[in-house]
Amino acid sequence: MPELTSIHKKFIHHWGEMGTRWGISRSGAQIHALLYISPGALNAEEIAATLSIARSNVSNSIKELQSWGLVKTIHVIGDRKDRFETMEDVWEMFRVVMDGRKRREVDPTVIMLEECVGEIRKSADGDRYTRERLEALQEFFATATDWYEQTRGLSISSFRKLAGMAGWVMKALKFDRKKA
Amino acid sequence: MPELTSIHKKFIHHWGEMGTRWGISRSGAQIHALLYISPGALNAEEIAATLSIARSNVSNSIKELQSWGLVKTIHVIGDRKDRFETMEDVWEMFRVVMDGRKRREVDPTVIMLEECVGEIRKSADGDRYTRERLEALQEFFATATDWYEQTRGLSISSFRKLAGMAGWVMKALKFDRKKA
DNA sequence: CTGTAATTTCAGAATATTCTGAAATATAAG
DNA sequence: CTTATATTTCAGAATATTCTGAAATTACAG
Lengths: 180, 180
Fold this sequence. Notes:
By secondary structure, chain A is mainly alpha-helical.
């Protein structure tokens, strides 16, 4: 993918911007976008040249992407350069990102809430309102993580079916639906 | 909530850090945390004093939170100062954040993909692989937004039931489950 | 109106993040 | 081992974001 068309550029730039909102650096997300639309694995030099970024930036960003589990290294015999590729399956890609975000954001928050609620229960001075609020958050996170574990193994088609069920459940059984 | 205990501080600081990963500034997220654990609505001066941040920062951050729909203004008769509060319901809070993120991140991406795929179809030069990849992304986003619309109105208890169904579906019907 | 309190705006300071390029290190063929 | 090439490290530059404080604006009681 040495020559980028305007469509390639558009996609890569947008993906780069979006990546920053998902905790991935712009360069990292751009590299991911490039690998995603590249038919074959690319080496670091090719990536740096194609995206006009420093070779070292590629190295660091690849490491970042690998820490997310989004990129893996390919060794081609007769080629000393490492090559990199990303998964084709979008659903798997999404799951990998979700797992990473859970690990980095949700899990530490759950720990923090446990610690806070634990302390507040010990102190027993009657900070009732704070305790209520933190326990409500705890319950939410418990439900959310439980939910995530129940569903993260579903294939995309199963997930579609589950959405269908939700709509059906809401309509046919007149389950409680929040306004709007 | 003028005097913060160490538990309050711990929660507020953690929430502030997490907020930055969700596209909300540290100050904004800290204000949100403070309002969340405050039994009553607070005015801007109280917030600034409690969190040791500039009065103008409170003003801007409140505006940011209001753009998310996370904070609303309360007018108390006989008090010229605006007071602010946030919703108690965690589930609603989560939904509000999800709506905001969808609006800011998913919707523009869907548009970008439409534009790219549209152009690539017109050009018809045979960039088959890129087209395939972008269409795969499109399909994923279509499923995801459809799913979100189907389920965003569910109450937390319905959602719990849905998770139960998912587990049941996976086990009892031996639906396809991806490895790991 | 007038005066005072409240709020907002905004330019620049402070901070945080990302990126570069040169130097150091690692890898492997000969 | 030696030499070529490939990769990583890292200090500081470049960039982006957030925050502050003073000035401008708004709101409203008297």
